[in-house]
Amino acid sequence: MQDRADTTMHALRALSVKQPWASMIAGLCPGVEKTIETRTWSTDYRGPLLIVSSLKPDQPTLHWPRGEYPAGKALCIANLIACRAMTWRDAAAARCDLYYKAMAWVLTDIKQIEPFPVRGRIGLYTVTPPRGIKLLTTEGAEKNEN
Predict the structure, then answer these.
(1) Strand, coil or helix: what is 106?
(2) Which helix (H) or strand (E) holds 15?
(3) How far apart are the C-alpha atoms of 125 and 25, rounded to whole Å?
(4) pTM of the model
(5) Is cis: bond before 20, omega within 30 of 0?
(6) What are the DSSP E strand ranges found in 23-144?
(7) Distances in Å between the alpha carbon of 119 and those of 7, 50, 69?
(8) Which of 15, 31, 39, 117 has the fewest Cβ atoms within 10 angstroms?
(9) Radius of gyration over alpha carbons of the chain, in Å?
(10) In tens digits, what is the pLDDT along the chain, a chain of 146 residues?
C-alpha cells in the first residue's frame, strides 16, 4: 500500500459497502473478520481503497454481529490486491456463500481510520479525504497522518 501520509494529500478510490459488512471489513465487529468483498462486477484497479459505509444497511439477519453500525462514513483504508472470480474457498473470508457471477475483491493491510462523512455512490468513485486522516491503532489510540 502506498504511504498513508501521502493519501491525505491525494484523492482515494472508494467503494460503498452496506452494513454490517463495512464494519466487518474495518474490524469493528470483534471476532469477525472480512477480507474479501464480493460484487457481480470486476475492476482492474489495484491499490489503496477507502471503504465507505452506505447510508442504508443490508436487510438484517440473525447472523449479524450485534451492535451499532456507522452509516455514510469512511471507516478504513484497505489495499485491494486482487479481483477474481469467487470460489467456494472464499466464502469464509467473504462472510457469504458463493453466488452466481460473484467476484472476490481481495483486501489486505486494512487500517481503521477515524470515521468521516462521505456521500456514497455506486461503483468505484473518488474521494478527497480531509487533511490529517487519523489512523486508529489496534489499541484504539489515534495516530495522526499529516
Answers:
(1) strand
(2) strand 12-17
(3) 18
(4) 0.84
(5) yes
(6) 36-39, 47-53, 73-85, 103-117, 125-127, 134-136, 142-144
(7) 19, 12, 16
(8) 31
(9) 14
(10) 434 444 444 889 999 999 989 999 999 988 889 999 999 999 999 999 999 999 888 766 656 666 678 899 999 999 999 999 999 999 999 999 999 999 999 999 999 999 999 998 999 999 988 887 888 865 444 444 44
Of 125, 133, 124, 128, nearest to 105 (Cα)?
124
| Strand bridging mode 47-53 / 12-17 | parallel
Please give the grid coordinates belonging to residue 53.
Answer: 459505509
Distance CA 34, CA 31 (A): 10
Domains, the chain, in order of start with CATH, read: 4-144 (2.30.130.30)
Contact 106, 80 (CB under 8 A): yes
